[in-house]
Design a protein that fits this description.
This protein is an all-alpha fold. Helices cover 68% and strands 0% of the residues.
């Protein structure tokens, strides 16, 4: 029978760990262009742990700077708004997944794989902000956190429908709970005060025709989502092969031949990043 208790759903969202004050304040400033990088660096500097993370990331070989940053004011601009958001939300999602048991490991693996492939696609397709594509890929399925944490018995039934009956994930969730992970994703986005861009990706990645803004970003994440699943990084065990949506390929000007190449590339990205795809 469909689940329809708003009281239980409200409790599930309430029980989802919120963001520490410094991170919540940081995300507000990252999403608002009225705040300067100096304003953003000041928030980072208030939290010693966050400062250490930002400095460490900014000094990594990825950025290629000769001189080492030693303060938040020096390090934060190197990462930029999208890079800081990537760092903060990656840690938050990882911490939430770590409390979910085996289901959390699968969700983290799929989320990280989708993030990495999204960034590679963004670079290949010359999307203007590959770091944002990474973060959107990372967060697209965050609504599943609520299902796996608060609806254990219902989640088992959903897994059965996906694995044994070959139902679509969102269809299975609707059948069992009355809502799907994209609707729960909207609630997560509100609780964590995420940007409209991320909220839209979390809410509409299974309803591509409903998107009004950020269409190119959504199509990149949708394709990365399918590639990750087909390359062994699905959020459910034994999930059947995912078809590539023609509308996505058409919008991104890709052919089936391109997809074969992209799938090989995605498989290599996932294989090369195996250490990142497991919760420590």
């Amino acid at each position: 029978m469909p689940f329809s208790s708003n009281k239980k759903l409200s409790k599930a969202i309430h029980d989802l760990p919120g963001l520490p004050d410094a991170l919540a304040d940081l995300l507000v400033r990252l999403a608002d262009d009225n705040f300067s990088m100096q304003d953003i660096s000041a928030v980072v500097a208030r939290d010693p742990g966050l400062t250490a993370q930002v400095i460490k990331r900014s000094n990594s070989a990825y950025f290629g700077f000769v001189w080492k940053a030693s303060t938040a004011d020096e390090a934060a601009p190197r990462l930029g708004r999208s890079g800081l958001m990537e760092l903060v939300l990656g840690d938050q999602l990882g911490a939430a997944c770590a409390h979910m048991g085996p289901g959390g490991n699968l969700l983290w693996r799929h989320s990280m794989a989708t993030a990495l492939v999204s960034r590679r696609l963004a670079e290949r397709l010359k999307y203007e902000d590959p770091s944002l594509a990474y973060t959107a890929g990372l967060m697209h399925d965050a609504g599943k956190l609520v299902i796996n944490q608060s609806f254990t018995a219902e989640a088992a039934e959903i897994h059965h429908l996906v694995q044994k009956m070959r139902w679509e994930i969102a269809e299975s969730e609707k059948h069992v709970l009355g809502v799907d992970h994209t609707e729960m994703g909207l609630l997560v986005a509100k609780k964590w005060n995420l940007s409209k861009q991320l909220s839209e990706i979390m809410t509409l990645h299974h309803r591509l025709n409903a998107v009004k803004n950020n269409r190119r970003l959504l199509m990149i994440v949708a394709l990365a989502n399918a590639l990750a699943k087909n390359c062994g990084a699905a959020s459910y065990t034994d999930q059947y092969r995912c078809e590539y949506t023609p509308d996505v390929l058409f919008y991104l000007n890709l052919s089936q031949a391109n997809v074969a190449t992209l799938e090989k590339d995605a498989a290599k990205i996932i294989a090369d990043s195996d250490d990142l795809l497991h919760l420590s």
